[in-house]
Design a protein that fits this description.
It is elongated and about 70 Å long. It has two domains: 92 residues, Immunoglobulin-like, CATH 2.60.40; 81 residues, Glutaredoxin (3-Layer(aba) Sandwich). The longest helix is centred in the first third of the chain and has 20 residues. Strands 1, 2, 4, 6 and 8 form a five-stranded antiparallel sheet that branches. The N terminus is likely disordered. Strand 9, helix 2 and strand 10 form a beta-alpha-beta unit. With 204 residues, the protein is α+β, with helices and mostly antiparallel strands. The chain is 24% helix and 34% strand. It comes from Patiriisocius hiemis.
Amino acid sequence: MKKTLFTLLALLFTLTTLAQKEKIKITDEKQNNRLLLFASNTSEEDLDVTLTVSGTGFRQSTRKPRAYRVPAASKVPMLSLVIERGKKPVYSYELDVTSELSRRAIRKPATPIKIDPDKPILIYITENCTTCDSIVSRLDSSYYNYRKLVLAEKPEVKKTIVGAFKNTVTPYEEISNPIISLGGKLYSEIDSYEALLVALKEEE
């Protein structure tokens, strides 16, 4: 029984670690004789990230790798590799990612990035919309990726949307908000960015 429990816990730990690692993407940029490595956090929580690099064609600091704070929806420079003359750098890496934040984590300037929400956001702009501008403006300044479609410019799509609200309490002609698709589910009563966030976090 103890062995089975230990195996189960180990599996859960492994799955959790893998899920966390998927929140961090490593990219590189070449600048003169250096290869700069960046960590992008595509989640909505701050993470501490330790990056260990190995490979050929470059030199790096011999100091023990340290954790860097990578805030939610941001990109942070992690390492600078010195490219050896006449060689092409080839590297692999290992990540240690944790949401248990340490005071000792190194903090570097972070660049905001756009991330995909848990549910894809598609904004249908209606003709009588009185709240569209404010919601779209807030989305533009948020870290969420989203799509926008003006129904007046897409008659076939509009026809489908009008049909979807034909027998509802509020027919299409009376809707004064954007029609918002969150993961495929349509909402017509969302009248603010705050209400959009609440709907975005709702469990199905």
